[in-house]
User: Which sequence fits this backbone?
């Protein structure tokens, strides 16, 4: 305990944790209120029955048919209807299908690029409130594959960890007169985080509609995209193609000469 009565926080250094692969969790999807849909159809004297059981695909079809009141008319299957929307680039209708995904094991470099996608909603781990003293770090394969570059990277990360711990301890002492312990820690961590590298692991919750996810997959699944975000884009595609094949089934994954994979579709910028 310090002389002013504040309890000094003990810091026990843990071995460096290195993460070399992200994880993507599908944590939220929509549901359809069938009774209300039935009421709407009855109120307007139309009959409509879709052949898909996937809520996102149902909502996109229902929204698209609302534009022309074409319930029970024209293209019969959901796949045909959505395929037509994609073919003609009527992408706004795809915005009614929404999913929430949680990304972990990703770097701050990754999230700096991800948040450029303005049509997503984000909630990211806060370095002001969360202690990063023992945070894992994301090592790029290009560094991990070579022992010498790996060692340089480890030394740099370890130096940043030591500096962060020292700064947090010193700053908490500096703010010892702040009575609120949570505020005291926040003031220390928000300043000390300035020495943490882009390789610091983070977690980010992302919600977006089908159109936004398609845009992300196309841009970040490209061979021109950075390796880490391309890896995540391919994982997102795998999840959403299983989740809603009529909305994401036009994508294919191709392998480049270097063994890496990229995304391709003939229907870009829907």
Assistant:
């Amino acid at each position: 305990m310090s002389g002013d009565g504040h309890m000094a926080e003990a810091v026990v250094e843990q071995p460096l944790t290195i993460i070399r692969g992200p994880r993507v969790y599908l944590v939220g999807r929509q549901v359809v209120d069938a009774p209300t849909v039935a009421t709407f159809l009855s109120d307007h004297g139309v009959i409509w029955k879709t052949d898909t059981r996937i809520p996102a695909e149902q909502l996109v079809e229902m929204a698209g048919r609302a534009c022309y009141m074409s319930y029970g008319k024209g293209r019969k299957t959901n796949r045909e209807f959505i395929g037509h929307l994609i073919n003609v680039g009527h992408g706004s209708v795809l915005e009614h299908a929404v999913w929430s995904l949680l990304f972990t094991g990703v770097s701050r470099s990754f999230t700096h690029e991800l948040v450029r996608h303005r049509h997503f909603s984000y909630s990211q781990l806060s370095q002001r409130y969360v202690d990063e003293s023992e945070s894992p770090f994301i090592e790029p394969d290009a560094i991990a594959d070579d022992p010498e570059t790996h060692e340089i990277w480890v030394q740099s990360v370890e130096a940043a960890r030591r500096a962060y711990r020292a700064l947090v301890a010193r700053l908490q002492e500096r703010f010892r007169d702040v009575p609120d312990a949570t505020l005291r820690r926040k003031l220390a961590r928000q300043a000390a985080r300035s020495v943490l590298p882009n390789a610091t692991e983070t977690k980010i919750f992302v919600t977006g509609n089908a159109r936004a996810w398609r845009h992300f997959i196309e841009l970040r699944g490209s061979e021109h995209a950075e390796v880490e975000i391309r890896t995540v884009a391919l994982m997102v595609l795998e999840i959403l193609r299983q989740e809603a094949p009529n909305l994401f089934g036009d994508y294919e994954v191709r392998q480049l000469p270097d063994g890496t994979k990229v995304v391709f579709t003939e229907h870009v910028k829907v």
Summary: The chain has a mean pLDDT of 95. The first strand starts at residue 18 and ends at 19. Residues 62 and 71 are 8 Å apart (CA to CA).
